Amino acid sequence: MEIVMVYGYFLRGTGSNLFVANTCRGLCKLGHQVKLFCQEEKPQLFDFIETAWDFDRHNHNITIVYQQATPYPGKCQLYRPNLNGFLPVYVYDNYPGYVVKTYSDCTPAEIEAYIEDNR
After folding, report:
1. 6: number of CA atoms within 13 Å, CB side?
2. Cβ atoms 38, 78 nearer than 8 A
3. Do the beta carbons of residue 34 and residue 78 sit within 8 Å?
4. Separation between Cα atoms, residue 119 and residue 114, nearest integer Å
5. How many beta carbons lie within 10 A of that of residue 75, not counting itself?
6. What percent of the chain has pLDDT above 90?
7. What is the pLDDT of residues 47-56, one digit of tens each?
8. 3-36: string of b/e by CB count within 10 Å (b at 16+)?
9. Which residues contact 102 (CB under 8 A, 6 or more apart)?
10. HEC profile for 78-104?
């Protein structure tokens, strides 16, 4: 079965990041094909990610940036949308390379642009 997982953040750290990583790994162990959309910058740290792709500046084309063999019957393809350097978050933290704002501090236009970049 093919499963699409959309997650706006990274796979390392705590909380939902680990939940998404462990869910994707578990799905791959069960033989599912996972298409994961997230911002993870180090796919090589995850044994379940078979390929990683970056979107171009306009999110129209993709380029493969990483590939490895995985030990699971299912495979995960990671797709990293280009967020144009903006990352809205629920709880503020520093993410190098991103302008970070909490959702409560974002303008409606910033949130709409973020949604469009992920779409």
Report:
1. 5
2. yes
3. no
4. 9
5. 17
6. 87
7. 999 999 999 9
8. eeeebbbbbeeeeebeebbebbbebbeeebbbbb
9. 88, 89, 90, 91, 92
10. EEECCCCCEEEECCCCCCCCCEEEEHH
